[in-house]
Design a protein that fits this description.
158 residues; alpha+beta; 3-stranded antiparallel beta sheet; 17% strand; nuclear import signal receptor activity; protein transport
Length: 158
Amino acid sequence: MLGTIPFPDGMGGSVYFCYPDQSGMAVWQLLGFVTNEKPSAIFKISGLKSGKGSQHPFGAMNLPQTPTVAQIGISVELLENLAQQTPVASAAVSSVDSFTEFTQKMLDNFYNFASSFAVTQAQMTPNPSEAFIPANVVLKWYENFQRRLTQNPLFWKT
């Protein structure tokens, strides 16, 4: 499982995540799979629903269950079986590259941060040492940047 030895021909691994529900029972959820053609993946687990498990191959195993421990399970299976399995939707592998995702989150954070300081013109106290930028200017920049990023994630390099 270190990536140094491939799966046998026609085989791959279903990747499961387990964490206990409120009663301490193990809840296994299928995240996705890895194969020789796709030897790694990053799965989101932050949106998994508590108590909504899926059928898994670990029930027959006598694994000790500790109510406060998360577990990862990998089941080596035929590729045909992997293709028929449906991972939980909230664990889907992101199709957006990490730079684009970072940029979008940074834009959202900046806009939210800048907007938190918004005041009406009546609330403004004149201060000759401070410059004020109208909120609609920041919003227009934000919308233009988002649009350009959607059209071409590498526009900023030109």
